[in-house]
Amino acid sequence: MKTLRTTLLAAAVAALATASVAEARTQVFAPRNDEFADAFALTSSTLLRPGHLYNATRELGEPRATAAAIGRSVWYVHKATATGRVVVTVALGRMDPAPIQLAVYRGTAISNLVKLGSGGFSGVGNANATAVVFDAVAGETYMVQVDSAAQDGYFEGNFQIGLAAFGAAGGLPLFVQEPTILREEYYGVQRLLAVNGFKARAAITPTVETVGGVVTLTATADALDVAGTAWFEIKDDYARDLAKNGIVEGALAVAAKNAATGGALGAGRAGVQLIRDDRYARPKLLVRFDHPGIGTRATEAITATAIVTNTSTSKADGCRFLPSADAFALRTVALDATGKPTAEVNRAFPLAPGEVRRFQVGMTGTGDAYEDVTLDCGGYAAVNYDYLARFYAAEQYGLASRILVDAQGVDAFERLAVPARTTGHPVVVKLSNTGEYAGDFVVKVQDDEYQTKADVTAVCESDAAGRCIGPSTASRATINLARREVGYVTVKLNRGVEPASGFVYFDVESIGSPDTRDAGFGGFEVITK
After folding, report:
1. Which stretch is the leader sequence (predicted)?
2. Is the pLDDT of residue 7 over 50?
C-alpha cells in the first residue's frame, strides 16, 4: 500500500509540474517574446524594428515598466559587447496613437532585475517616442521591457524599437523607419528620430548636406534633455529642383552642444538620397520575386530574392523597393553575379537599358493582415503588375503557417517555356514547410483563364518525379506536411498558339488550425518555347 501511495504521489507531483509548464504561457496567440525567457536580441542599429503587444501577457513576479503600465509586456535582451553609453528607444512614427511604456533593467532573471530607467508617452501628436540611456559594462546582460498604459476603446499595440551603442561619452543616434530616400515632385516625407545619448542637456542644430537646397527640413525640438527625443521631417521642396537627373547622395547632420556651456558634444548623421527622374524617358522594368508571398508570425522577418531587369532602351534614373505601410522595417541588399550579398544596403539604384540586378529583400511586419513590398522606379517608368512582381507577408498571431512554393523547371524570372499546341504538360511544384504549423494544406491553382495561353487541366499530390499519389482534381490538391517536410504537387497544363504569355498561380492555405491561414504564394509565367 505504501508503494501505491508513493506511486500516486509521484504521479500527482509530475502532473502539477507539467501543468505549471503548460501554464507558463496561457495565451497561445501572444508575441513570441511575450515571456522573459523568450526575449528577442537587440543589437546596435539605427533601423527601427517593429514590435506589437497584441495578446501579450504579464508573468508571475514580473515588474511593472512604469506606474501606468497595465502588464501587456514583451521583452528584449541586449548583451553589451563593450563598455559605454547605450540608447534604447521606442516610437510610433506614423503608427496609430498608443501609450507605449518602456523600462530597462540589469539582470538575467525576473527575480534579480535592477531598473536602470523607464519612460512612456501618450501617443498623441508628437508625444510618440521615449528613450532610456544608460552606461553599459562589457559582458553584462540588460533586459528591455515594452508595455502599454490603459487605453480607451480599441487596443493599439504596435510600436518600433531601436538600440544604439556608443563609447563612454555617448552619442546622438538618428533612428529611421525605412531607408531615407526621396523622389523629386512626390509627396513622400521621411522621418528620423534623434535621441540625446550624451550626459548633458544638448542644444541641437540640423543641417541637410548636398541636397539641402532642394528639400525642406522641420524639427520638433531644438534642445534635448538627456534621453530626450526629437523628430526630423525631410520632404521635397517643389519650388526647387536638382540640376540634373539621377541619384544625389546627401545627409542629415545634427550637431549637439552642451546647452549649459556651449561646448561641443558630438553629432549624429544619417544618409539621405534624392532622386530626379528624366520625365521624357519611359523605361520599362520587369521584377520577379522567387517567393512572392510568405506566411509569417507578426514582427518576424521574412526574405525573398528579387531579380530586376530594364527591358527598354531608356535608363531608369532611380529605383527603390517601397513598403506598403509605415509600420514595418524594410532591408534590401544588392547581390553580386554569384548571388552573394554586397555592401550596398538600403540604397536607391539606377538601371541602364538591358541591365539585370538581383536583391535580397527582407521585411518585418507588425501583424496587419497583409503588407507588401514593390519596386518603384518613378512615375515615368512602367513596372509589370502581375502577382509575381510584389512580395507580401501574410501575417499571423500564434504559430505561423509558412510554405515556400517553388515550381521546377522555371528560369530566374519564374518563366516556363512550353511548346505551342501542347496538352497535358506536367509541372512539378515543390512545397517546403518552413513554418511552425504541421498538418493539412490546400494548394489552390489558378490560370489566367485563357486556354490559348496557360490552361490548367489537372492538379494532384505527387512525388518528386511528378507521379500522382493522391486524387487528381481540376484546380486544387490537399497535402499533409510535417514541420520541415518537403512535398510535391504536379500540375498539368495546355499551351495553345497565342504568342502572349500566360500565368499560373499557387495559393497555399493551412486548414484545420485555429483558423484558415495563407501559408504561401507562388507561380510562373508560361511562354512559348
Report:
1. 1-24
2. no
